[in-house]
Specification:
The complex is a heterodimer. Chain A has strands spanning 4-7, 10-14, 19-25, 33-38, 44-50, 56-58, 64-68, 73-78, 87-94, 99-101, 105-110. By secondary structure, chain A is an all-beta fold. The chains are: A mainly beta, B mainly beta.
């Protein structure tokens, strides 16, 4: 079965520190992977997507993710966290007909 | 581009009534629309997939008579929660996909339903 797993339901970092949100996908998931951000009571906003082109994908708000086939990973990073990055983050993979979402990671930024 | 709207953004209704939620693609033709449900502090759960002009495909465990989906045009899909009960209270999110962006869905802002 296709699956996307986010390691860590809650990540807390200090402002200015590195942000690392982990995502692993099952090998049966086609290589179309996405990271979304969700602010309270809002829909999902696309941060970035991997579509079999460059393995290092740059997105909005300074985020980037690297597709590593050998590790079946697509971790999201940002060099320096900002208070406005506090939100829920979802990793997703495009299945045969539908998106498969991870469980989500809540990112908290400490001042 | 690729904007999806939902209306209403919030709705409160009494138990037993029906509620309709609209999902519109504003600047593209959505050949496929998806309806998700999200409980607090949880991920999105796909409820159904609808293709324009055909019946929706419901995920396992989702009652099709309870959650009526209509996708009558390339820019509009509606979700009607019939005879709503408090356990139907949730955040409902739609997304849309065009024939030109098969591998990407564009999400609406969500609708918060509260059933008293």
């Amino acid at each position: 079965a296709q699956s996307v797993t986010q390691l860590g339901s809650h990540v807390s970092v200090s402002e200015g520190a590195l942000v690392l949100l982990r995502c692993n996908y099952s090998s049966s998931v086609p290589p179309y992977l996405f990271w979304y951000v969700q602010y309270p009571n809002q829909g999902l906003q696309l941060l970035l997507k991997y579509t079999s082109a460059a393995t290092l994908v740059k997105g909005i708000n300074g985020f980037e993710a690297e597709f590593k086939k050998s590790e079946t990973s697509f971790h999201l990073t940002k060099p320096s966290a900002h208070m406005s990055d506090a939100a829920e983050y979802f990793c997703a993979g495009q299945g045969a007909q539908k998106l498969v979402f991870g469980q989500g990671t809540r990112l908290t930024i400490n001042p | 581009g690729a904007v999806v709207s939902q209306h209403p953004s919030r709705v409160i209704c009494k138990s037993g009534t029906s509620v309709k939620i609209e999902c519109r693609s504003l600047d593209f033709q959505a050949t496929t629309m998806f309806w998700y449900r999200q409980f607090p502090k949880q991920s999105l759960m796909l409820m159904a997939t609808s293709n324009e002009g055909s019946k929706a495909t419901y995920e396992q465990g989702v009652e099709k008579d309870k959650f009526l989906i209509n996708h009558a045009s390339l820019t509009l899909s509606t979700l009607t929660v019939t005879s709503a009960h408090p356990e139907d209270s949730s955040f409902y999110i739609c997304s849309a996909r065009s024939s030109y962006s098969y591998n990407e869905q564009f999400f609406g802002p969500g609708t918060r339903l509260t059933v008293l």
